[in-house]
Each structure stands twice: as structure tokens, then as C-alpha cells.
Amino acid sequence: MIRNIFISFLGTSPYKASTYYFGGHTSDKKMAYVQEYIVKQWCKNWDTQDFFLVALTKDAKNYNWLNKVQGFPSGIPDFKGGEGKGLASVLNGLKEQGKIELNIDTIDIPDGDNETEIWQIFNCIESRLSEIIAQEPPETTFKLHLDITHSFRYIPILGVILANYLKVFNPKLEVTQIVYGNFEKGQAEARAKGTPNDIHSPIIDLTSFIELQNLTNVSNEFINLGDSDNFSTVGASYKALAEQLEELVRIIRTSRGKAILFEFDYQGLQHNIEEAKQIPNVNQAQVIKILEKIGERLAGFQNEEVKNGFIAVEWCIKYKLIPQGYTLLQETLMTWLLLAVGETDKIYHYPSRDKTGLALRGVERYRKDESGNFVLDKKGKKIDDWKDKIQLTKKMFDYVQVHYSEIYPYYDKLVGNAGFRNDINHAGFRPNPATPEALIMELEDLYTNFRRILKL
């Protein structure tokens, strides 16, 4: 369910009549109040559950809501001919004619001459919005629209901050539109043409700034927090990109090593970033810079590469996913070793993966006796039927011993009986458990040393 709320502001000036236009649409008559054009243009299909709220001071209510001030001769408001013909009369007239159905109401606000009164304006608008929100089911989405034509200069900032504040209590509230009736431009052009009373004023849509802010917010969450949950809210244009970012975050958070190393389409993700850069928009230059930062965060990932596991560990370190980091570090090392010795078909075979630990810790449990039979070191028992398994273990052991023997103490530190992965996976229920700080520091140290030793 979607509910729309349009907030407009009304001042105390004697507004002159103007023809308003937006895009290819022009108002059917001259009108003193830009709000008349707005409700006809954007609110004509809203129903009785939607709201058009006009924020006004005490003077604005008298000068332009209940009546229409004609001027201020000698500083005194002149209402002659404008009694009872303010904005309230205009909007209610549209309702009586059946042209609009939405609720029309006012929000009383102070003059806003100092910080205290500005906060009072904030509180007044917040209170009214909260009342409306409280009347609807929790699953309702609220779309907030702002008309800042006659607002105080700080109102656009206040409105956006207010919306972000309210999202803490209702995540489904969003600012979806900001418009401004540029009467000054229309008036200046009319004077330049020598027809000062034939004013045609454009409506400027400032929504692209909100869209940029939304993209900035969700991109900041992704780049600095590793969170993509809100990326789907930035619009249909970024749907493919949002879905892939969400999938990537999900597989790292859940330690899906197979997907991280071999299945996720990193090239497709980079392609979607490039596609998003090409979307034409007035804020395209700024969007491109943001997307480039996202691309930088994904640098290094490649389709079907074992190094993706190590990059994922780095991701876990950055975003404090410590249990996932330890798990992915060990499982990536195991996969790396099987691939390094040419045992590609065994990377998903648990008994083979289990044997990698012996090689990575430098433990040689198997040898041959004088007759060439494989025996266990400890008991000397012949185990010819284990020949294939022993050969794989020896193959891995010899490879690591010749090329990477420096890895032994680090791998033991990772997975030995006193290793950090055991510590964190058993929730510290052991003698002398590591502190949170130690677990974080050691993960980074182990990761750095493994990549150094393996030259990855």
C-alpha cells in the first residue's frame, strides 16, 4: 500500500497570477497560487487517503490561505476583492468540482526567525506526519513530496533531514519529489518582453538531487559498511546492479566459498556498473563518480579464481565479519593447495580437503617401509588399501615442503588445537580463549602472511 503526502508552504506576499508550465504541460489558465497547478498536475489521481498539507504562519493563514492579500499600501494589508479567495478557497473549489479527492489540511508553524523557531517548524511538521503515518498499517509505504516555491530558504534541507529522521521509525518513508515554481524567471522574462502581466513561470523538478542523495547513501553503506540491503531502493534503473551486489554480500556473509571462488559472475557485475554509468540523467557526472567508487571496492575479483577467496577474507577484515573471515581463510587455503597440485576434481571431496591440513601444517604421517609398502608412522601398520589417499597426502606434503614450508606455523596458528578458527567456532568455550581484539588482529596478521608466502 502506498500513501502520498505533499507538503507545500505559503507566504505572505501578494502573489501575482502566472501561467505555469512543466515539460510539455501548461496550465489551462493564469493562477496566483502555484499549489493549484501542482495538485492538478501531480495529485489528480490521489485518493482520500493521501494528503496535501500547507505549512503556514499566522500571517500567511490570514493573507493567503483564508483571504488573498492584494498589496500592502502604507504597510497595511489590503484585502479588497480578495476576501475569502485565498488558497483554501481554490483547493476546496477543485474538490467540489471533483477534480481532486485528496485530503487538504494545514500545518501551523512559527515565523522561523531564529534557531528555536526553526526547530519548532521541524517539530510541527514531524508531529503532523507522524499522526498520518500512525493511522496506516506498518507495511504502508509513504512517498513524501515537497513544494518549496514559497518556503524559507532552509526548508529543502530541513525537509530532507526530517524525512531521514522519520525513516528511523518508518523505513518505508521516502522523499520522492521536490518541485519549485520559478516565478522570478517568468516575471523577468515578461518584463523583458514588455508584457509584465503575461507571466509564464516554469516548474523546476529538483528530484534528481534526492535521487543522487539516495544513491550516495546506499553506496556509502556498501563501500564503508559492506551492506547492500538498501541498494534496491534507488530505482529500477539500478535493479540488475542492486541484485548482484546483494548476492555478493550475501554469499560472503554466509561463507559460501564455492560461490565466491567459482560461481559468482564478477565480470557481469562490472558490466552492470558500466551500464549504470551510461544511464542519461542530469546528475550523470556525479552518478559516474559514485559508481566508480563501487567498482574500486570490487577490484581484484575475477571469474573462477581461487584468489577471490583471499579477497573475500580481506572484505571480512574490513567489515568485521571475523568468523566468516577465519572460515574462508582456511577453506580457501585448502582449495588453493588442491588446485596447486593439479587435483581439480577433488576440491569438493571432503576426505581430500581434510588431508590438506596435514600438508599445510607440515605433518608427515605416512612413509614407505623397506619393501615399498605404505605404513603409518606411529604404529607401522601396512595400509596398501589407502595407497591413493596416502599418495595424495604425500603429493601435497612434498609440494608445500619444497615451495612453501614457511606456511607451517601460520597454518597451525589458524587451525591447530589452539588455533583461532577453533576458538571462534566454539564461541570461546575453551581454556584461555582469545579476546575479541586478538581475534581481529590475528585474522589480519594471518591473512597478510598467507598472501605474502603464496605471492597472491
Which helices and strands, and how do they pair?
Blueprint: E1 2-10, E2 19-22, E3 25-26, H1 34-42, E4 51-56, H2 58-66, H3 87-96, E5 103-108, H4 115-134, E6 141-147, H5 155-167, E7 173-181, H6 183-192, E8 200-205, H7 207-225, H8 239-253, H9 257-263, H10 266-277, H11 284-297, H12 307-318, H13 322-340, H14 350-361, E9 366-368, E10 374-376, H15 387-403, H16 408-415, H17 420-425, H18 436-454
Parallel strand pairs: 1-4, 1-6, 2-8, 4-5, 6-7
Antiparallel strand pairs: 2-3, 7-8, 9-10
Helix pairs in contact: 4-5, 7-11, 8-10, 9-12, 10-11, 12-13, 12-18, 13-14, 13-18, 14-15, 14-16, 16-18
For the sheet with most strands, the description reads: 8 strands, mixed
The proportion of strand residues reads 5-15%
Low-confidence stretches: none
Which fold does the CATH topology of the largest domain refer to? Rossmann fold
Give the CA-based shape.
elongated
Q: What is the name of the CATH class of the largest domain?
A: Alpha Beta
Average residue-wise pLDDT = 90
What portion of residues is helical?
40-55%
**Widest beta sheet: strand line-up:** 3-2-8-7-6-1-4-5
> Termini distance?
51 Å
CATH architecture of the largest domain: 3-Layer(aba) Sandwich
Topology order in helix (H) and strand (E) letters = EEEHEHHEHEHEHEHHHHHHHHEEHHHH
